[in-house]
Amino acid sequence: MRLVLDTNVIVAALRSQTGASAELIRLATRGRLTLIGTLSLALEYLDVCARPEVRSGLEVSEAEATKFAEQVAALLDPVEVNFRWRPLGPDPGDDHVIEAALNGRADAIVTFNVRDFAEASKRFSLPVVAPSGILHELERDNG
Q: How far apart are CA 48 and CA 96, in angstroms?
Protein backbone atom coordinates (compact mmCIF):
# COMPACT_ATOMS: atom_id res chain seq x y z
CA MET A 1 0.00 0.00 0.00
CA ARG A 2 1.39 3.39 -1.06
CA LEU A 3 0.50 6.21 1.33
CA VAL A 4 1.10 9.93 1.65
CA LEU A 5 1.11 11.02 5.28
CA ASP A 6 -0.14 14.51 5.99
CA THR A 7 2.10 16.41 8.38
CA ASN A 8 -0.46 16.16 11.20
CA VAL A 9 0.09 12.39 11.17
CA ILE A 10 3.84 12.88 11.63
CA VAL A 11 3.18 15.27 14.53
CA ALA A 12 0.82 12.75 16.13
CA ALA A 13 3.51 10.06 15.86
CA LEU A 14 6.01 12.42 17.49
CA ARG A 15 3.57 13.10 20.31
CA SER A 16 2.59 9.44 20.94
CA GLN A 17 4.59 6.34 20.18
CA THR A 18 1.57 4.16 20.97
CA GLY A 19 -0.94 5.65 18.52
CA ALA A 20 -2.02 4.66 15.04
CA SER A 21 0.24 7.27 13.43
CA ALA A 22 3.36 5.83 15.03
CA GLU A 23 2.26 2.34 14.08
CA LEU A 24 2.03 3.35 10.41
CA ILE A 25 5.61 4.59 10.57
CA ARG A 26 6.72 1.34 12.21
CA LEU A 27 4.98 -0.64 9.47
CA ALA A 28 6.77 1.44 6.83
CA THR A 29 10.07 0.77 8.58
CA ARG A 30 9.33 -2.96 8.35
CA GLY A 31 8.44 -2.68 4.67
CA ARG A 32 4.76 -3.54 5.17
CA LEU A 33 3.67 -0.32 3.47
CA THR A 34 5.33 2.38 1.39
CA LEU A 35 5.38 6.02 2.36
CA ILE A 36 5.66 8.38 -0.57
CA GLY A 37 6.30 12.10 -0.68
CA THR A 38 7.92 15.04 -2.33
CA LEU A 39 10.85 17.14 -1.22
CA SER A 40 8.46 19.91 -0.16
CA LEU A 41 6.54 17.48 2.05
CA ALA A 42 9.74 16.15 3.64
CA LEU A 43 10.86 19.72 4.35
CA GLU A 44 7.49 20.47 5.90
CA TYR A 45 7.88 17.46 8.22
CA LEU A 46 11.25 18.84 9.34
CA ASP A 47 9.99 22.39 9.81
CA VAL A 48 6.81 21.53 11.68
CA CYS A 49 8.33 18.93 14.02
CA ALA A 50 11.01 21.38 15.12
CA ARG A 51 8.53 24.13 16.06
CA PRO A 52 8.37 24.92 19.78
CA GLU A 53 4.56 24.92 19.78
CA VAL A 54 4.53 21.39 18.34
CA ARG A 55 6.98 20.16 20.96
CA SER A 56 5.15 21.99 23.77
CA GLY A 57 4.31 19.58 26.56
CA LEU A 58 6.68 16.94 25.22
CA GLU A 59 10.05 16.07 26.61
CA VAL A 60 11.54 16.21 23.12
CA SER A 61 14.32 18.59 22.18
CA GLU A 62 14.41 20.37 18.85
CA ALA A 63 17.30 18.10 17.82
CA GLU A 64 15.34 14.95 18.74
CA ALA A 65 12.24 16.17 16.89
CA THR A 66 14.35 17.00 13.85
CA LYS A 67 16.02 13.59 13.95
CA PHE A 68 12.59 11.93 14.10
CA ALA A 69 11.37 13.94 11.09
CA GLU A 70 14.59 13.11 9.21
CA GLN A 71 14.05 9.40 9.87
CA VAL A 72 10.50 9.61 8.55
CA ALA A 73 11.64 11.61 5.52
CA ALA A 74 14.29 8.95 4.84
CA LEU A 75 11.50 6.37 4.55
CA LEU A 76 9.79 8.28 1.74
CA ASP A 77 9.78 6.84 -1.73
CA PRO A 78 10.47 10.09 -3.61
CA VAL A 79 7.81 11.48 -5.90
CA GLU A 80 8.55 13.89 -8.70
CA VAL A 81 5.74 16.32 -9.36
CA ASN A 82 5.15 16.30 -13.10
CA PHE A 83 1.61 17.64 -13.03
CA ARG A 84 0.16 20.32 -10.79
CA TRP A 85 -3.51 20.79 -10.05
CA ARG A 86 -4.13 23.98 -8.12
CA PRO A 87 -6.11 24.98 -6.24
CA LEU A 88 -7.25 21.63 -4.95
CA GLY A 89 -8.88 22.26 -1.62
CA PRO A 90 -9.90 24.83 0.94
CA ASP A 91 -6.36 25.07 2.36
CA PRO A 92 -3.73 25.86 -0.30
CA GLY A 93 -1.14 24.50 2.14
CA ASP A 94 -2.56 21.02 1.53
CA ASP A 95 -2.18 21.14 -2.26
CA HIS A 96 1.34 19.70 -2.20
CA VAL A 97 0.07 16.69 -0.22
CA ILE A 98 -2.56 16.01 -2.87
CA GLU A 99 -0.06 16.50 -5.69
CA ALA A 100 2.33 14.03 -4.05
CA ALA A 101 -0.48 11.48 -3.85
CA LEU A 102 -1.60 11.99 -7.44
CA ASN A 103 1.89 12.03 -8.97
CA GLY A 104 3.04 9.14 -6.78
CA ARG A 105 -0.03 7.02 -7.47
CA ALA A 106 -0.85 6.73 -3.80
CA ASP A 107 -3.48 4.35 -2.57
CA ALA A 108 -4.55 6.96 -0.02
CA ILE A 109 -3.75 10.17 1.80
CA VAL A 110 -3.57 9.62 5.54
CA THR A 111 -4.67 12.59 7.63
CA PHE A 112 -6.69 13.68 10.63
CA ASN A 113 -8.20 16.44 8.48
CA VAL A 114 -10.28 14.23 6.19
CA ARG A 115 -12.75 17.05 5.51
CA ASP A 116 -10.00 19.32 4.16
CA PHE A 117 -9.27 16.76 1.45
CA ALA A 118 -12.89 15.83 0.64
CA GLU A 119 -13.12 17.84 -2.58
CA ALA A 120 -9.88 16.43 -4.00
CA SER A 121 -10.85 12.93 -2.86
CA LYS A 122 -14.09 13.16 -4.79
CA ARG A 123 -12.56 14.87 -7.84
CA PHE A 124 -9.72 12.35 -8.23
CA SER A 125 -11.27 9.24 -6.61
CA LEU A 126 -8.46 9.37 -4.09
CA PRO A 127 -9.18 7.79 -0.71
CA VAL A 128 -8.50 10.02 2.29
CA VAL A 129 -8.36 8.07 5.52
CA ALA A 130 -7.45 8.61 9.17
CA PRO A 131 -4.48 6.58 10.49
CA SER A 132 -6.71 4.19 12.42
CA GLY A 133 -8.72 3.54 9.26
CA ILE A 134 -5.58 2.46 7.40
CA LEU A 135 -4.66 0.12 10.25
CA HIS A 136 -8.16 -1.41 10.09
CA GLU A 137 -7.79 -1.88 6.31
CA LEU A 138 -4.42 -3.58 6.78
CA GLU A 139 -5.84 -5.87 9.46
CA ARG A 140 -8.80 -6.77 7.23
CA ASP A 141 -6.53 -7.48 4.26
CA ASN A 142 -4.18 -9.63 6.36
CA GLY A 143 -7.00 -11.04 8.45
A: 15
* Contact indicator for 110, 3 with CB cutoff of 8 Å: yes
Q: Convert the pLDDT of each residue in 73-96 to its tens digit.
A: 999 999 998 766 655 566 667 788
Q: How far apart are CA 81 and CA 135, in angstroms?
A: 27
H helices of 30-85, in order, are 39-50, 52-55, 62-75
Backbone angles phi, psi at 32, to 5 degrees: -85, -15
Three-state SS at 117:
helix
**Which one is the CATH code of 2-142: 1.10.1040.10, 3.40.1010.10, 3.40.50.1010, 3.10.20.310?**
3.40.50.1010
pTM flag (> 0.85)? yes
DSSP state of 78: E
Domain positions in the chain: 2-142
